Amino acid sequence: MIWVHDLQKEFVGEGESIKALQGITFTIQKGEFVSIMGPSGSGKSTLLNILSFLDRPTGGEYTFMGKSIDQLSDKELAHIRNKEMGFIFQSFNLLSRSSVYENIEIPLLYSSDISPGSRPALVKQAVDSVGLSEKLYVEAGKLSGGQKQRVAIARALVNNPHIIFADEPTGNLDSKSGASVMAILKKLNAAGHTIILVTHETYTAQFASRLITIKDGLLETDQAIKKDDKGKFFK
User: Fold this and answer.
1) pLDDT digit string (tens) for 76-111?
2) DSSP assignment, residue 89?
3) Residues near 26 by Cβ (< 8 Å), separated by ≥ 6?
4) How far is residue 53's CA from residue 19's CA, in Å, rounded to a whole number?
5) pLDDT digit string, tens, across residues 39-78
6) Nearest to 155 by CA among 204, 208, 97, 89
7) Which residues contact 174 (CB under 8 A, 6 or more apart)?
8) Burial class of 36 by CB neighbour count within 10 A (0 to 12, 13 to 18, 19+)
9) Helix count (H) and strand count (E) of the chain?
10) Is the pLDDT of residue 232 over 90?
């Protein structure tokens, strides 16, 4: 699904340049659950932005589902992003005065492939999957942090994307709510969604089956996360 080779990103400004990514190579297969970790300034957020088409690399190659992004226009990338990708953010990014329904519906409003008449059923299916059906017409601003993140997950799901990018999805949550959110992501992965998670929390990262660590813009490690026959993690 994702193939990157010698991926580079350099930011230039005011006479100096910063090499955020210095040549990263890896492959992510369809259906994987991959965590990306690294200290602040390591380049992991830059990498996520490139993988999710929010930015372009300044060097190297990136192929998504067989297509090189160098050969795609910004309009084509935006179409793929809306149709094939879902996004979950640390800060939820909800419209606080809009209802849960209206927040989840947003990606559908930008999809030319989905008719207005089919939207209610898709929204209901998404909200049911995160267990918030009873909150469908409640203003998002009146929800708890954990509930807001579940709404964000439902919004990411409503287009039935192939891949979900989660950027520190538990960063603003207490441990119980965070565990609930990760359990939902694990369930989505079991249902066939590819999950790419950026996190600084070891506990959160261990819900994945593979861990990529980034340091100083370089790939430091890329390894499977080991679990025993009861699903518990061990080094």
Assistant:
1) 999 899 889 999 998 999 999 999 999 999 999 988
2) E
3) 4, 212, 219, 222
4) 19
5) 989 999 999 999 999 999 999 999 999 999 999 999 999 9
6) 89
7) 145, 146
8) buried
9) 7, 10
10) no
